[in-house]
Amino acid sequence: MELLFMKPYCKEVLWGGTKLAEKFGYETEGDHTGEAWVVAANKNGVSTVTEGEYAGKTLTELWNEHRELFNNMQGEEFPLLVKLIDARDDLSIQVHPDDAYAKVNENCKGKTECWYIVDCDEGADIVTGHKAQTKEELKKLVEEKRWSELLNIRPIKKGDFFFISSGTVHAIRKGTLILEIQQNSDITYRLYDYDRLQNGKPRELHTAKSLDVITCPQELKDTREAEKIYRGQKSQVLVDCPLFTVTKHMVSGADEVVIDNPYDFLIVNVLEGTGSVDGRKIKPGDSFIAPYGYRKLAFSGTLTFMTSHV
Ligand code: ZN
Description:
Layout (H helix, E strand, L loop, with lengths): L3 E4 L1 E9 L1 H6 L8 E7 L1 E2 L2 E2 L1 E2 L9 H7 L14 E8 L5 E3 L3 H8 L6 E8 L4 E6 L4 H9 L3 H4 E5 L5 E4 L5 E2 L4 E8 L5 E4 L14 H7 L14 E3 L2 E8 L4 E7 L5 E4 L4 E13 L2 E3 L4 E5 L4 E14 L1
Antiparallel strand pairs: 1-6, 1-22, 2-3, 3-7, 4-5, 7-14, 8-15, 9-12, 9-14, 10-11, 10-13, 16-17, 17-18, 18-23, 19-23, 20-21, 20-22, 20-23
The site of zinc ion (ZN) has 4 residues, from loops.
């Protein structure tokens, strides 16, 4: 049994930058790389196995042809999508539908996501949630473009974590490098795009659908659990919800740290430090999947990494 190391699909977008290439060494096609889809089996982008028995196979192919790697889970698609995002400019203010709304209106899955701030500029901020108490108030503030009254803008710092359930208005803003773990869906409703032009035209807005799906009033929860310290490892569950569980691990010291994988699969995203897993060197930007039955992962070195599973 082997770990499935992945090469990302990198996406050029107007608001992207150069940090994904500089910091993680990804092969990119230009200098506006906004997203590296590091673990992806989506019709709009796939990650590819880099070594071992399945080298060259995409995650979609593994899901379709080798479902035993995922404990023969049910489902048409691999359930999660993990991205690293470099926002050199502001992303539009947006919202995602839940599964029920997306199924009826878009024939796809909805999208709940979460963000870990890998790095950010001094003074960076993000948008999560809004201040309207009723749908009527929300509609009025949107129609009158009273964005600063409506939106909840929060300062951020490295290491912050945000759970963005479907129906939550949000935007990543400039100077932010984020690890995003989400449902495997690419459905977005754009509420406001700062009146920017792309090729001389504003991008399409989806105001009616956005108003349909935005939760009102919007309560934001801090899903983080207490930090645990155990045998050379600090770990913290960042979110444990019905769609996914994400845990941050910080390893340091002389002893190996063993992480158990009793799940259908376990995704690992290395964010900082140097070290190894089961004797293989790993570095920031490396992403891999421990398949079903790969029960123990032994880490050594000084590392910060994230694990996620369903
Ligand atoms: Zn989003």
